[in-house]
Amino acid sequence: MLVLQILIDGFAISTLYALGALGFTLIFGVSGVLNLAHGGLLVVSAMIAYYVGTRLGLGAYIGAGAGILAGIVTAMATYLLIVRPIQRSRVIPARERELFVLTGTLLWGVMLQEMLSYIFTDTPITVKPLLPGIVDFLGVTTPANEFITAAISWVVLGCLWLLVNRTKMGKQLLAASINPRGLTLLGFELSRIYLLVWIIYGVLAGIAGILLGSFLGTSSEFIPALTGSAFSIVVLGGLGSVSGTLFAAYVIGYIETLTAYLVSPSLRNVPALVLLILVLYIRPQGLLGRR
Questions:
Q1: CA distances (Å), 286 to each of 156, 207, 241, in order?
Q2: Which among 5, 32, 79, 132 has most CB atoms closer than 10 A?
């Protein structure tokens, strides 16, 4: 029974990790931005979903809708107020803009953490689950929300795959990630494409934050850890590699679950960090990265 419990819990948390990290790698792949405020977007979405769904009593689904909207608004604020002004600045040398973007998003993440702590306090909260109750699966009692979390995550991942690989919009995103200058020469406006990818990112972060808040709970204090977790997954899989991100999410998710059950929950992050260090030493481009 323990083996089955580990398989179920590991699958759910790994899928959630994949969804949370995919927006992070999508933004980097298309626009070249490592958003160090990523955890802030997840927690803002979860907090708004909690406030609307639980505190205002409007229910889990209206709360989820509000949380996704909050994710989009926060993502757009990150891009329009932090990232784009730095990228277009004439004062900052071009070779130093990437460093300034990293610093700017890091400080923005700290600001989000402090604002959420002031408004909601830093006490952990749990978002109302979309599907309450428990399920007896092959003799293992598991919260129904755990299954719906994995199902929604994979549906969203599938929709993203269809968007990128089966639509004109998706082909523009791929082209922007491969050769942005060539795309500009063909008459496409990169600013519109970047705006679109940040909206998609906001949706992904919003959904991931809500599911995370209902599955593991959340708090403003979780922001640095969530950003670090997504960054570790993306680096382990290979910066800009979607398939690498998915693979790394399952590797880390199952390693953490095994450690929590067989060793100690307090040490669940240690083996994954050791693996990350080894991979960076042996294969710096990540498991499935090209460079």
A1: 25, 26, 9
A2: 79
